[in-house]
Amino acid sequence: MNILVTGAEGFVGSSVAKALYRDHSIIGLDYLVGRDKSNLPEDMYYINQDLSQINVSQLPEVDLVLHFAAISIERISETPIYQDINNASMLKVLEYVIKNKADLIFTSSGSVYGSGTNFTEDAPLNPLSDYSKTKILEENHAKFYSENYDLNVTILRYSNCYGDTTYIKNKFYPGKKGIMRVFMENAMKGVELPIIRNQSRDFTFIDDVVDATTAVIGLKGLNTFNVATGIETSIESIPPLIEAALGREVKTKFVAPRKIDNLNRRSLNIDKISSLWKPKHTLKEGLKIYANRLEAFFH
């Protein structure tokens, strides 16, 4: 199968691209300052362009598009106009999908629900950031095009993916470090972990995220699934898990929430996707694997 992966240099995009690279013809697309630090195999077909500005007629023909490209919540919060780039990129992807009569998998976010627990896919959406509003707009574009152009579209709402060992600052729009990467790197350096009180998240290990994403390839029609564990974990309970994963004592400090950390609680219901995929890793298991990978990454 010929597959275009947008945001291919990002955390989840590169993980999925590398997993599919073994059995498929992968075209990676991202927008880098330079490829001296790449997260992809050197021989992977790669296009270095701004997706929001690209001429889709110049792209190779494909059977499937995996659309991961997105400017992060941090960057959009700093520069709100960036949400227009995410929206324009989605419209370019849909133009390309129609041209190729290809399937589309779009990676959205559990943040579209707002703050709460056990959200099902039909729960009301309550975006609390410009980033979340953009994800909802992109979902609506995808749904409209699916229904009006008879496209196979699957929307995946990820929840707090962790396990990142990618280069972050190689992009034109720099990537972000998620909370688990910040905690792990701080612990490895002997720096205090910044803990926000009374917050929880539903953490999903990257290997499970990759499995969930590949499990929905080939689905027909319009589909929306949560990708998570269904387990609510408090931020304050994480330091002992980091200690166990690294085999060393960690220091913590309580900090005030950032403006973008406005979701007090999160867990997603995963019953709908359970016939296709279920997570295999507990948080304790995932963090142990992650610790080993990060140590190898830095050495």
Task: List its traits.
alpha/beta; 15 strands; Rossmann fold; 7-stranded parallel sheet; 299 residues; single chain; 34% helix
Task: Please tell me about this protein's structure.
With 299 residues, this protein is of the alpha/beta class. It has one domain: NAD(P)-binding Rossmann-like Domain (Rossmann fold, 3-Layer(aba) Sandwich), CATH 3.40.50.720. The chain has eight helices and 15 strands. It has helices at 11-21, 73-78, 82-100, 130-149, 179-189, 206-215, 238-246, 283-298, and strands at residues 2-6, 25-30, 45-48, 64-67, 103-109, 116-119, 153-158, 161-162, 193-195, 200-201, 204-205, 222-227, 233-234, 252-254, 266-268. The strands form five sheets. A seven-stranded parallel sheet has the order 3-2-1-4-5-7-12, sandwiched between helices. It has a two-stranded parallel sheet with strand order 6-15. Strand 1, helix 1 and strand 2 (25-30) form a beta-alpha-beta unit. Helix 7 (238-246) packs across helix 8 (283-298).
